[in-house]
């Protein structure tokens, strides 16, 4: 009996020690869940946190990865849902986005094979329908018919927020015109991610996106951007980087600062910073991989100090000594400076009025 009690106490003590040790490890560090390594787009690990802030030890194979309460269709109203999806790292998708994708009647996808990997990982079995720039006009009426029938339609792009330099803009317009609800589901966006970390001005910016294919139209657009005082943001394919840098340096000047963001949220994320001239040299020998987000600083406004009264007086004196009438001298000085004609005329009368009266009297 004594031996049995001793063994029982020893087992209980060992169990408590084991549980205490496990709780301590959970408190000190998040327990990570490995993603499948079949695709380089998947992050290496994902941390699930409970409401209390402790990491969960449930493996990815033992859960649908969407909390049960979020997996249900919580009375989603019919309409077009614009769902933001990760631009690289799968941890950047929201629970709300996953719930909408799981609850939708159909998901419109730019590339069904690409999007299928995301849905497969999160065990979302909603049907996919191909919707891209080459079939956009043909598919619009098909999608509108389903929306009129009260279905929930989710639209996703290959990466980021739909309708932002991606298919869906015209569909969203049609839905708005027909009073069909268009609901944004916020998520990742390359231009905002790049802008926030660029180090350039963020209070005002111009999103240009992809430039025209025609060289004349492209250069004209770059000239417009070069004259703006706000940060300019472009989407550039990697094989067109050299062309873009050469043309933009010609329009903006090779001393204008720029930021080149690539592989954002991925393993090889990079923010290159320098002038357009330096960028041309840096990327002349190699072509980076992946879509590029390029930001160029706005034109610096140079403040022109208004001329002093002495400067205005000297200019008026020179013109009058050359035989110019008072009115013509005032006009010439006012046109050549930022000072109003009224101000210059008042100064001219004060400084040269009596002299002109004397000259007129002698004549």
Q: What is shown here, in short?
A:
The protein is of the alpha/beta class and 363 residues long.
Question: Which SSEs are present, and which pair or pack?
Answer:
Elements: H1 2-28, E1 33-34, E2 45-46, H2 68-71, E3 79-83, H3 95-103, E4 106-109, H4 112-121, E5 128-130, H5 136-148, E6 152-156, H6 169-177, E7 182-185, H7 190-196, E8 205-209, H8 215-226, E9 231-236, H9 241-252, E10 257-262, E11 270-275, H10 276-282, E12 292-296, H11 309-321, H12 326-336, H13 341-362
Parallel strand pairs: 3-6, 3-7, 4-5, 4-6, 8-9
Antiparallel strand pairs: 1-2, 9-12, 10-11, 10-12
Helix pairs in contact: 8-9, 9-10, 11-12, 11-13, 12-13
Describe this structure in words.
This protein has 13 helices and 12 strands. The protein folds into 4 domains: 23-63, no CATH class; 65-187, 3-Layer(aba) Sandwich (Cobalt-precorrin-4 Transmethylase, domain 1), CATH 3.40.1010; 191-296, 2-Layer Sandwich (Methyltransferase, Cobalt-precorrin-4 Transmethylase, Domain 2); 309-355. By secondary structure, it is of the alpha/beta class. Strands 5-4-6-3-7 form a 5-stranded parallel beta sheet, sandwiched between helices. A 5-stranded mixed beta sheet has the order 8-9-12-10-11. Strands 1-2 form a two-stranded antiparallel sheet. The longest helix has 27 residues, at 2-28. The model is unreliable at 15-20 and 22-63 (pLDDT under 50). The protein is 43% helix and 15% strand.
């Amino acid at each position: 009996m004594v031996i049995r009690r001793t063994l029982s106490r020893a087992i209980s003590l060992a169990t408590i020690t084991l549980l205490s040790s496990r709780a301590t490890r959970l408190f000190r560090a998040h327990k990570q869940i490995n993603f499948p390594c079949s695709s380089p787009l998947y992050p290496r690990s994902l941390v699930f946190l409970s409401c209390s802030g402790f990491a969960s030890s449930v493996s990815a194979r033992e859960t649908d990865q969407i909390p049960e309460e979020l997996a249900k269709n919580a009375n989603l109203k019919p309409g077009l849902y614009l769902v933001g999806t990760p631009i690289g790292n799968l941890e950047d998708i929201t629970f709300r986005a996953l719930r909408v994708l799981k609850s939708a009647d159909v998901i419109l996808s730019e590339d069904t094979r690409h999007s299928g990997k995301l849905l497969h990982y999160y065990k979302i079995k909603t049907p996919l329908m191909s919707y891209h720039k080459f079939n956009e006009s043909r598919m619009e009426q098909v999608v509108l018919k389903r929306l009129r029938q009260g279905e929930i339609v989710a639209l996703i792009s290959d990466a980021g927020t739909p309708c932002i330099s991606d298919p869906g803009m015209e569909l969203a317009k049609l839905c708005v015109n027909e009073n069909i609800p268009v609901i944004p589901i916020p998520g990742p966006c390359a231009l905002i991610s790049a802008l926030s970390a660029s180090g350039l001005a963020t209070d005002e910016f111009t999103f240009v996106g992809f430039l025209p294919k025609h060289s004349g139209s492209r250069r004209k657009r770059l000239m417009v951007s070069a004259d703006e005082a706000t940060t300019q943001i472009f989407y550039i394919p990697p094989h067109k980087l050299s062309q873009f840098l050469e043309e933009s340096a010609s329009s903006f000047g090779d001393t204008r600062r720029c930021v080149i963001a690539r592989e954002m949220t991925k393993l090889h994320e990079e923010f290159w910073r320098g002038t357009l001239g330096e960028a041309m040299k840096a990327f002349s020998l190699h072509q980076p991989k992946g879509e590029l987000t390029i930001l160029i600083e706005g034109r610096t406004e140079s403040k022109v100090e208004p001329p002093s009264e002495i400067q205005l007086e000297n200019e008026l004196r020179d013109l009058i000594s050359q035989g110019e009438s008072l009115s013509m001298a005032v006009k010439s000085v006012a046109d050549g400076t930022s000072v109003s004609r009224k101000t210059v005329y008042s100064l001219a009368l004060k400084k040269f009025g009596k002299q002109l009266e004397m000259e007129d009297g002698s004549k």
